[in-house]
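Blackboard transcription, Thursday session:
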Amino acid sequence: RKEVEQDPGPFNVPEGATVAFNCTYSNSASQSFFWYRQDCRKEPKLLMSVYSSGNEDGRFTAQLNRASQYISLLIRDSKLSDSATYLCAVNIPPMNNDMRFGAGTRLTVKP
Amino acid sequence: ETGVTQSPTHLIKTRGQQVTLRCSSQSGHNTVSWYQQALGQGPQFIFQYYREEENGRGNFPPRFSGLQFPNYSSELNVNALELDDSALYLCASSLGGEKLFFGSGTQLSVL
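(Written on the board underneath:)
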């Protein structure tokens, strides 16, 4: 089983739609979780952290399910500018700062 | 922008050659991580440097080596280049933590 897995998509949604991505991780001792956004031919940029209590930033909500070992990202009211690849990152114990990435989920928002 | 700079932006090498990639970390950040990203894949962890010491390594052969300097800038060296080394090489800096701030990467092509 891969350390971090994501549904590669692509997800093609209309503007205004709500879309959700999941990311599963294999190490139950992982403690740090993040979502990154990567535009085509650009570097990944930190989107948000994921906490046990959930994390909301405007139209974006991230959640952690430790029992099932997955994190999720929900995007509400999708905009054209949300089109990108979304990468999840999970730490590999014992080091908190050894971050491993999923292969990414590609989102295209259409008019 | 993240303040993380990488050079060069593009590089073409032939099989068997050696290459050095450079990274200047964001001011105040003491940790540099290097990732390799093949087309359509997520970033793969190569290694991390913290205060000039290697602080973790992914599943890459010894011909991938690195350095970190007192000013926290870093180099990635790859010897005996292979065709499969063609990828985007990303440097990320952090303050000894998990939140990574990426440079724009070096696109390496091995012919």
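Lecturer's comment: The mean pLDDT of chain A is 93.
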